[in-house]
Structure prediction request, 423 residues.
Amino acid sequence: MKRTLVVGIVALLAPIASAQIEITEWMYSGADGEFIEFTNVGSNSVDMTGWSFDDSSQTPGTVDLSAFGVVQAGESVILTEAVAVDFAAAWGLSGVDIIGELSANLGRNDQLNLYDASDNLVDVLSYGDEDYPGSPRTQNQSCNIPESGFSATEAQTSWVLSAVGDEYGARTSSGGDVASPGRIVGYSLCDYDADGDVDLKDFGAFSACMTGSGVLYDPLPAACGLTPDLDGFIAADADRDSDVDLVDFAAMVECISGPDTPSDPSCGYIEAPPTSTLITLNGTSIDVNGTGVTVDGTTATITSAGSYTIIGTLNDGQIVVNTGGAVEITLDGVNITNSTNAPIAVLSADSVAFILEDQSTNILTDAATYVFDDPEEDEPNACLFSKDSMLISGTGTLTVHGNYNDGIASKDDLVIASGTINV
Prediction:
């Protein structure tokens, strides 16, 4: 064991035994119950039959931990004052061993003592922001002990409270607590179900929370199952700007690892996007307020990743996307007609999202016969066309008149998350 006990009264009780089980996280008070997390940080399994826990009373056998049984290398187990099934439900846990209804309730300033089957003291932690000024007060927010702190027997001022999306994968419980019980390894911010991978289940959870640029998720969309943290942000809001838009979607896409494939814990953290560029359609002309757009007559070409808002009517013209990175386009009362081609054509982008502004009506109409600059070309071939991944969401209406071929087409992924779509 890496810890050396320095508290004299406990040293007289029993020496610390050599073991692989560490106290790795604790919260002394929470809406969904105080808890202590124990983790097998070694390379071999440990049978915790006969092991026990006590607080500052320092009495082996007070709380029996035998129900944990064999704890595999890297596995974390939980001791909580809550009923075990209620605790699991509050944190969305499955496959984590939990012993509930802890009788030795923890105080603001207390001590955690772990004993093996022979009543040897295996691990101890004295904590309390009053006893150890500057150390974390774990009320409604846990503290994960960093690996560098495994040798400490007292809470350190360098330790920090859990925060949603931190390196331990902390999230918010149904009662509003912030912690990462049952998990010692890092989890991706986009791993919303905390199962170690980022897959279609997480994508579904994200899509249900999509609002669009500038559309705040307070209140949350009815289908959104993510819980805001103590600062009011949900995990799908990767840039923490109070909406869930294409910038967050791009982070989600980058983090997808597939079922049973571990996700990168560092994935999903991004900076807030710049202010949206406004593209105003004036019938026979186009005005731009912002950057990232070039205009040639009645054709506006988006040349930079970022956020764009389009308003107005274009009698005979086109919006083209030709750039790298993620592009978000909010359609807010748009009516575009093109007599020779597609009114909107995404020729290149890592991904593009079209957000239908709330209560807006948007109409796209293409030509019955397309005229291509190169006779060998056969794309675009739809009224709303994209060569790359395309997402449509929002609460407005989009009506597409596809006279040439398809109404809406993507050569990559196409996701329609919300909105009223008439084709």
